[in-house]
Design a protein that fits this description.
The structure holds 2 protein chains of 2 kinds. By secondary structure, chain A is mainly beta. Chain A is built from no helices and 11 strands. In chain A, strands 2, 4, 5, 6, 9, 10 and 11 form a 7-stranded mixed beta sheet that branches. In chain A, strands 1-3-8-7 form a 4-stranded antiparallel beta sheet, with no helix packed on it. In chain A, a hairpin with a 4-residue loop joins strand 7 and strand 8. Chain A is globular, with a radius of gyration of 14 Å. The chains are: A mainly beta, B mainly beta.
Chain lengths: ~120, ~110
């Protein structure tokens, strides 16, 4: 069965970076884009960006350009999201999600369990 | 700040029908398909509707989606206690950003 398993919770100081992993199983990792979404406590869902695991191509929400890096290691079917220059407003649960959409559509059918990132103020 | 607007809340008694609206623009809902996600506290979002009105395998047919112009709706018929959750619409924007709605909390009275 398809699974996305993320790394554990992190506590980081302001100005530091955090790297979250997302290990895929149960399907061909390079066949579906991986997206990253976050949710701060009491807030809504916020899309951050996407990565094509086959080509390594990426795209980002304007808000995160220059601060987010998306990478992958195809040999272990794992995607990574690194967020730099952390501030307290980045405290949130971060999710990876598989995009099964075709022909220009975007739909996230499988999600990781979420990774809590805390940046104390 | 989300570009897809939803009412903050909706409610109904068990068995009732509840509808949640999602208002966008010509650059997102007006030109791309709409998805709906259910978010329970402490769990990952779950895809309820894709391509405006398609249900993934395993999603009860009590959930239905529709789209007209720059707006979309999610209907929950035969409301059940386990439907109490936050619901988000989402669509691709022509700027190639994927945008979520503001979210609507459904309460079962």
């Amino acid at each position: 069965q398809v699974q996305l398993v993320q790394s554990g919770a992190e506590v980081k100081k302001p100005g530091a970076s955090v790297k979250v992993s997302c290990k895929a199983s149960g399907y061909t990792f390079t066949s579906y884009d991986i997206n990253w979404v976050r949710q701060a406590t009491g807030q809504g869902l916020e899309w951050m960006g996407w990565m094509n695991p086959n080509s390594g191509n990426t795209g980002f929400a304007q808000k995160f350009r220059g601060r987010v890096t998306l990478t992958r290691n195809t040999s272990i079917s794992t995607a990574y999201m690194e967020l730099s220059s952390l501030r307290s407003e980045d405290t949130a649960v971060y999710y990876c999600a598989r995009d099964f959409g075709r022909l220009g559509e975007v739909s996230f059918d499988y999600w990781g369990q979420g990774t809590q990132v805390t940046v104390p103020s | 700040q989300s570009v897809l607007t939803q009412p903050p809340s909706a409610s109904g008694t068990p068995g009732q029908r509840v509808t949640i609206s999602c208002s966008g623009s010509s650059s997102n809902i007006g030109s791309n398909t709409v998805n709906w996600y259910q978010k329970l506290p402490g769990t990952a979002p779950k895809l309820l509707i894709y391509r405006n009105n398609q249900r993934p395998s395993g999603v009860p047919d009590r959930f239905s989606g529709s789209k007209s112009g720059t707006s979309a709706s999610l209907a929950i018929s035969g409301l059940q206690s386990e439907d109490e959750a936050d619901y988000y619409c989402a669509a691709l924007d022509d700027s190639l950003n994927y945008v979520f709605g503001t979210g609507a909390k459904v309460t079962v009275l």
